[in-house]
Design brief:
It contains five helices and no strands. The chain has one domain. By secondary structure, the protein is mainly alpha-helical. The longest helix is centred in the last third of the chain and has 24 residues. Helix 1 runs antiparallel to helix 2, helix 2 crosses helix 3 and helix 3 runs antiparallel to helix 4.
Length: about 140
């Protein structure tokens, strides 16, 4: 319960920033006429809001990152009237490739579960090797 509350704090912060940007920053007539400040304030706060919101459900930041970035890129392309089947397909493919790469790395970097007995490699002495045992015995 406490972990969800801690995850909700950045969402509330960025939701407040995003609401401030929407209600108090002067909006341009079009996306192409917007200043750098307006674009950064809107899309930056939207990106971080989506990032932390998706992270609540997926619980892995490296997968939430490409999903949030893909959604923001699709939104920018829609705002520029450049969203087509090809561009959306490329964005979705790129996001899918990032997610599959990070899932592979997640599986490699997983820690063993507590309570399990991982096999620890150890050096064996020559006596424990069956063929050498027979050689060392003298009659």
């Amino acid at each position: 319960m406490l972990s969800y509350l801690l995850k909700a704090i950045p969402i509330i912060i960025f939701l407040t920033i995003f609401g401030y940007v929407i209600f108090n920053v002067d909006y341009p007539k079009s996306v192409t006429g917007a200043s750098f400040y307006q674009l950064t304030a809107f899309f930056g706060s939207l990106f971080f809001l989506l990032l932390f919101l998706i992270n609540i459900f997926l619980n892995y930041l490296l997968i939430s990152l490409p999903l949030a970035l893909g959604l923001v890129i699709l939104l920018v392309l829609q705002g520029l009237n450049s969203l087509s089947l090809v561009s959306s397909g490329l964005v979705i493919t790129a996001v899918w490739l990032f997610i599959s790469y990070f899932k592979k790395n997640q599986k490699k970097n997983q820690k063993p579960k507590t309570g399990s007995n991982p096999i620890k490699p150890s050096l064996t002495s020559k006596i424990n090797i069956p063929r050498l045992k027979n050689l060392t015995k003298t009659k």
